[in-house]
Amino acid sequence: MDTSTRIRLCAALAALLLTATAQSASLLVNGSFENTTAGGTVFNPDNASFNAVMTGITAFGARQGIDIQTAGSGYGLSPQNGAYKVSPASDSGGTTEAFSLSMIGPLVVGESYQLSFYIERLIQSPFNGGTVQVGVSSSATSFGTQVALATAPNSGWLLSNSSFLAPIAASYLTVRLTTTQSSWVGLDNFVLTGAAPVPEGGTAALLAAGLAVIGGLQTRRRR
User: Fold this and answer.
1) Which residues contact 80 (CB under 8 A, 6 or more apart)?
2) pLDDT in tens, 158-167
3) How many degrees, rounded to 5, is the angle at CA 82 between CA 57 and CA 19?
4) Are 205 and 149 in contact, with CB atoms under 8 Å apart?
5) How far is CA 136 from CA 140, 170, 183, in A?
6) How many whole angstroms from its chain centre is CA 199?
7) CA distances from 211 to 14, 62, 104, 207 (A)
8) At 210, phi and psi to the nearest 5?
9) How far apart are CA 223 and CA 115, in angstroms?
10) Can you give the pTM of this predicted structure?
11) Which residues contact 208 (CB under 8 A, 6 or more apart)?
């Protein structure tokens, strides 16, 4: 194998490694709610107050009061990841609290994405768990198009996993509760990632060649 081919091979392998690393990183600016100046638990802040202490997250629901909770707040479990979780609510037949999470860049229409987050049931009459709708939107203050749905479990944190094809070049992931009942849930650790792309023909061939060379070197070392 000549020097030029080896250089191309190394470049292809490096590009694939960088791509795989980028694909595994979340596209959300503050998916675990840790980038905040709340300084502790804050119950029932209006949208403006919530937005003032949360980076990369915008509360916009007609019903205002998304709770920011830390361990020992008195409601539900400790945050699933880090020090903070958020707890939106909705009224039966009425309005819902809602928020959007900023992305580091817009989605690519038609591309596949993976979404995961944790949800827990919170109870204080008349509120009792509920179902969360997740959407993607080009606006921080509009729900947009629904791409996922999750219902709070009877106990513990539930990990919700789903995948979707981007319907629009969205820059925000949006979250709201259904209003079929009076709902209240804890949410934490939203992660949005892109699907790993299939290597182009030339890159795939170089990758195969690289693996063959590595295999050959290992065989020689054993001898």
Assistant:
1) 118, 120, 157, 188, 189
2) 999 999 999 9
3) 70
4) no
5) 10, 6, 22
6) 25
7) 13, 56, 33, 6
8) -65, -45
9) 47
10) 0.80
11) none
